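Example record

The entry below shows one chain as it appears in the dataset: sequence first, then structure tokens.
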Amino acid sequence: MIRVVFNQKGGVGKTSITCNLAAIGAAMGLRTLVIDLDAQGNTTHYLVGEIDAEAYPAEAQGVAALFKQTVGSRKMARNPDSFVWETPYENLYLMPSSLALNGMEKELESRYKIYKLRDAVDKLEAEYDRIYIDTPPNFNFYSKAALIAADRLIIPFDCDTFARQSLYILMENIIELQEDHNPDLELEGIVINQFNSQARLPGELVAELAEAGMPIFNSYLSSSVKMRESHRDHRPLIDLAPSHKLTTQYLDLHAELEVTAAKAAA
């Protein structure tokens, strides 16, 4: 099962959702890989902390190195799994990002390497029970490559009027990409993030999405300072605070995902 977490709007919780769902799956015994396609590297920083730039040059890191070997006459000589790092957590693996992705994007796009991630993921899928792909907050080469490589799409929604407007634009882009590149990509659901049940606006926005026929997960994620602590300590919630309310919400969301995974496998 290959899932991409994507929204063109920034600040909606893509990294938090990607890493915490992956960490929960790993804690439950699922061999899980996270691929960080955002050059900012927030997912990489979250799961493994600061990277020693001298020991690991940017062009030799994870995703950047994977793409680099596809440019020119070179073939993908190295197995994609060789670009995967271990994390401090059992069963949880990472293909890290780096700033080198920024400098490579135009060349990759001009050489039409948009399917190379899918080729790599096809090889990796046999090695992992679950693969999660985190994406940059725009509809660029890397997010398109992720959407082409994935089976399922998860969209974070942060209960903001601008987020609603962005969501409708996003859906138009997704439909076009499905038609042109990946007809098998399914919208698994929208994750309601940073939900405040005491405020009226979030409930109204969610009701509007439901009325428009959007598939919304039943498990909402609330806002909590515990998530900031989780980022600071490079520890997913299931490790940092396994009994916290937000962790429980993530566990419920993960359980929903596993139901859909079981149906897909049936």
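Notes for this example: The CA atoms of residues 195 and 262 lie 28 Å apart. The domain at 2-265 is CATH 3.40.50.300 (Rossmann fold).
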